[in-house]
Amino acid sequence: MAEADASIFAAMPAVEERAAADAGALDALLQGARTPFVIRDLVREWPLVQAGLASASAARAYLVERARPVPFAVSLGQPGKDGRLFYGADMEMNFREARGKLADIFGGMDANEGRADAPAIYLGSIDVPTHFTTVAAENAIDLGSREPIVSLWIGTPTRIAAHNDFPDNLACCAAGRRRFTLFPPDQFANLHLGPIDNTPAGRAVSMVDFHAPDLDLHPRFAEALTHAQVAVLEPGDALFIPSMWWHHVEGLAPFNILMNYWWRDTPRWLGQPQDALNHAILSIRDLPAEDKAVWRALFDYYVFENGPEVTAHIPEGGRGILDPLDPAAAGRLRSFLLRTLSK
Questions:
Q1: CA 282, 248, 27, 21: dihedral to nearest 10 degrees?
Q2: Which of 125, 145, 202, 224 is the most exposed place for a label (fewest CB within 10 A)?
Q3: Does 1 fall in a domain?
């Protein structure tokens, strides 16, 4: 991949680096963390990292030997492009999706290696236990009581538009090099986000091309850059990305592997905030301004402020979903919503 205008990244401060000598130290760093940090060499001893340090082919062989006989989803970019998996001019995706055996996908990488017109080949969010036998156990991090989702991201040089995720994320570079450009959650408007319902991978993304920002089209991006941080991960390095932080991700080497751990501190039986946003667009956004003002006040009262005055006057045992939710109450509320949305 041709390197971007280096000035945009050189001017950014580096993400803070921290150290974790053992699982207890790592747990202490993660407890309540709300800003990103890098831990160098956290997973340097992983067998997958060691294979990647030997060669890209050794890393691919390591994974193929442990791949389950299931199809792998892969994104295939257009030949001769710069690895940016994004929208085309028609707002359709500029890549196609396919499925195949991991060995065959890696064979395509081998066949295209070194070609100037090679297409981007990218396997994103591959669930590790579903797709591999011993990879998770052999390349593990002790995250204490957290129950993470473990995923692999594998590809040739790629550029993934800035987006955010609801869970916390510990991203570990297993092979190649990754550059992350990060922005605090409140910078969403300055990133000029695209559609919510038509996205490359399920989350709204920044429409800004970080390799060639058009400040006439995206003028607020200049302000976003004043809040940006950058981290370049080498094999064995890890980056903590707090929930809702925006991150633009680049695979800088000919072959790149990232293993990440997603978890949320809230129970999994709680709903997804994105679903609430989508429902609010359906039911509130296009109301008259006076009605929206009333609903804004109701949301503040019941959801965002949620003070003791909401329930103090209601007898205990009769507060319904105004009481703190438990799995049973959450299940009843979800069933109620499904019934109402299906009408």
A1: 180
A2: 145
A3: no
Other residues' Cβ atoms within 10 Å of the Cβ of residue 118: 20
Sheet holding 95-100, edge to edge: 17-18, 37-39, 238-241, 168-175, 256-263, 149-155, 121-127, 72-77, 95-100
CATH number at residue 143: 2.60.120.10
**Residue at a domain's end among 263, 281, 296:** 263
pLDDT, tens only, 288-317: 999 999 999 999 999 999 999 999 999 999
| Angstrom distance (rounded) from CA 203 to CA 311 | 35
What is the rounded CA–CA span in Å between residue 200 and residue 206?
A: 11
**Among residues 254, 247, 303, which one has the least CA distance to residue 280?**
303
Which conformational region is residue 106 in: left (phi greater than 0), alpha (psi within -120 to 50 degrees), or beta? alpha
d(CA 279, CA 60): 43
CB 45 within 8 A of CB 51: no
Domain span including residue 245: 6-263
Mark whether 259 and 290 lie in a shared domain: no
**Residue 193 burial by CB count (10 A; 0-12/13-18/19+): exposed, middle or buried?**
buried
Residues 10 and 146 in one domain: yes
